[in-house]
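Saturday, quiet lab. Running sequence design on the structure tokens for the scaffold JK sent over.
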């Protein structure tokens, strides 16, 4: 029991990459009220959990029925992230209003919940690990890592106090570029895998 958990928790941790998502979370929640930030964290983690569980339980069957490839998810997720990053850059990183629940909802579900926490890497990693170690260790590892992500995002304000306002603003400005880079990477990897499969 403990060995399968160790063999699954590390790959899932790397795939979710909560520390790597933290700067984007800080950018998306800039200027909103603390209770809204907590709602964004809750929605993002729960969204990631539900999407990944559905993907693990139904992924292969749905893929086979619809003829969808994992690479299709990578490209679609990349395009979605790219659109979000461009929109954020065009708005010059304007602070989000504390009275804008639609904005905070969007931040929690998209892009934080998916395709960042529950992105192609997380979905494919969990799906592959299930084939090797079974459902229980993978689901347990997924829940464990999402709880860690929840704690990290929930304590983000402490991190902000450590790095200061200027550091936070710098992260906010760079987060849009980071989103765009992640988007391009996802699209590129999806295309590369499709080309490699054709060859």
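Result came back. Writing it out in full:
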């Amino acid at each position: 029991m403990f060995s399968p958990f160790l063999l699954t928790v590390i790959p899932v941790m790397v795939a979710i990459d909560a520390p790597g998502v933290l700067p984007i979370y800080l950018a998306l929640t800039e200027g909103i009220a603390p209770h809204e930030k907590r709602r964004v964290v809750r929605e993002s983690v729960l969204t990631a959990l539900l999407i990944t569980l559905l993907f693990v339980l139904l992924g292969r069957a749905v893929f086979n029925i619809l003829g969808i490839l994992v690479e299709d998810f990578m490209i679609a997720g990349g395009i979605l992230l790219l659109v979000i990053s461009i929109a954020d850059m065009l708005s010059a990183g304007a602070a989000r209003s504390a009275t804008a629940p639609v904005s905070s909802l969007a931040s929690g579900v998209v892009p934080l919940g998916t395709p960042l926490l529950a992105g192609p890497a997380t979905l494919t990693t969990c799906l592959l690990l299930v084939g090797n170690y079974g459902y229980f260790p993978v689901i347990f590892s997924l829940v464990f890592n999402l709880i860690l992500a929840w704690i990290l995002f929930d304590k983000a304000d402490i991190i902000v106090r450590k790095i200061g306002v200027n550091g936070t603003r710098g992260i906010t400005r760079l987060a849009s570029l980071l989103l765009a880079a992640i988007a391009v990477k996802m699209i590129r990897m999806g295309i590369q895998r499709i080309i490699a499969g054709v060859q």
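Notes for JK: The chain has one domain: 2-198. The first helix runs from residue 2 to 16. Ask whether to fix the surface positions before the next round.
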